[in-house]
Amino acid sequence: MDRAERAQMAMMLEVCAYPKPGNVDRCHDYSDTRLEHFLASTILARPAFDAAERTGGRVGGLIREAVTLTAGHAGGNTHFGAFILLIPLVLGGDIDGARRIVAGTDVEDAIDFYAAFGLTSVRMAESDDLDVNDPASIAAIRERGMTLADIMAHSAPRDMVAREWTNGFALTRRFADLLHAHGHGRQAIVAAFLDLLASEPDTFIAKKHGGAVAERTMQCAAEVLGGGRDLCAFDAECIAGGVNPGSIADITIAGIYVALGEGWQWDC
Amino acid sequence: MDRAERAQMAMMLEVCAYPKPGNVDRCHDYSDTRLEHFLASTILARPAFDAAERTGGRVGGLIREAVTLTAGHAGGNTHFGAFILLIPLVLGGDIDGARRIVAGTDVEDAIDFYAAFGLTSVRMAESDDLDVNDPASIAAIRERGMTLADIMAHSAPRDMVAREWTNGFALTRRFADLLHAHGHGRQAIVAAFLDLLASEPDTFIAKKHGGAVAERTMQCAAEVLGGGRDLCAFDAECIAGGVNPGSIADITIAGIYVALGEGWQWDC
Predict the structure, then answer these.
(1) B182 versus B125: which is more confidently predicted?
(2) How far apart are CA B246 and CA A221, in angstroms?
(3) Which single residue of A120, A145, A157, B68 has CA 20 to 30 Å from B244?
(4) Which residues 179-208 of chain A have a CB within 8 Å of chain B?
(5) Would you say residue A268 lies in a domain?
(6) Can you give the pTM of this predicted structure?
(7) Domain that residue A119 falls in
(8) Does B267 map to a domain?
(9) Would an 8 Å CB–CB cutoff place B16 in contact with chain A?
(10) CATH no. for residue B221?
């Protein structure tokens, strides 16, 4: 399996794994975003991963390409956060390589990233304060000479995906370690997902519903792990409230990519 | 969407559509073959479709490549029949083109096809009488100068996928027409699948369980359409008995590929 295929397999395995409280999975759709949208993006992103693996290229431009390739369906932004993690991982091969890619970004990467972000705005509520969502900032980026790594550092306090760029892919590393610890096969994905959900407030939830809901979701996941709350009931409650831990899903995908490269087996 | 992506989308949409009585779908796995196996094959077959679309090549060799690319997981033969239909369709573009591809096959295509078939034998019971499953026949093929189209004609009486090669992709055409008739979106796939299941005995079922079971499955599907049988109960009964209409699933994939090329929309 080459790196591009590993990235696609990680996207497929994440969305199929169930139950993942609050997220689209094999058992749940949202009315506007369904399992097929996630799997269509998995198929259609391939040329961006291929380019990253075979010809290199700039990380900002490749994120933009991946988002462009997957923006044609009605399911909205399924994998923007995942591409932010996967593109440097595929470019660099593994976490060490991704760190080198992050360290080498420049202003053009930042500009391309903004262009990619504009394509995803359909899924962003007006209340979102994701600071990279202001096209007027492009002039400021050039003026200040901000790299894409600088942009991510600016967003990191409120965005756990951007934070991966600043902390050496720490949660991606932790997720891969959790997969190894839980053993091979798809149930390990669900177990590792719950572990992360129970220990980190999801910043996608925080942006959408506020920090208190993100904290409460984390506590509920911890109660599931402790046996004090039913997993499927928790899942149904999250789905009903639109409380979807989308950033932890992105980190799940990155963690599966890394673990697959380290010998973790999905197929058992 | 290029042809290769259309082929992959057709494979993804078929396996996700539910309920499809007896087959792996979003709601059902078999113990040895799961949703993820079908989706892994969908991802991993890409280079064979790319080669068919971009560089042409021989249909037998490309079927062999597709099977080889997807034989690495433990889920067995997920898409052999689908590749028999999709490879000429991607090579030729549409049904007319696929007919020309079929008409141009030669002895080397037949030999490559046998090699591909050998890779899938893990999923074949000893009772299967699929006539292309005898490697000793290769010498006879060369001696008689049999083309791959000749092989398919030989198998056609007992194999509805091979029969597509001899009748100008008649059921593929019918499935695409059924999709257009049922309207856009994933529910049309289920409706068209049931229509075909209710009107044609599935030859995969016939090989596995005998002609009577294939006939009875067809009659049950007709009863579902007539309102006299519950769809989900019928699905559960098929799954429990391992009665899976795998050949109609292959034709479903080919029909989705054709319909997508004619403007049918999956995404609504």
Answers:
(1) B182
(2) 40
(3) B68
(4) 186
(5) no
(6) 0.94
(7) 3-261
(8) no
(9) yes
(10) 1.10.4200.10
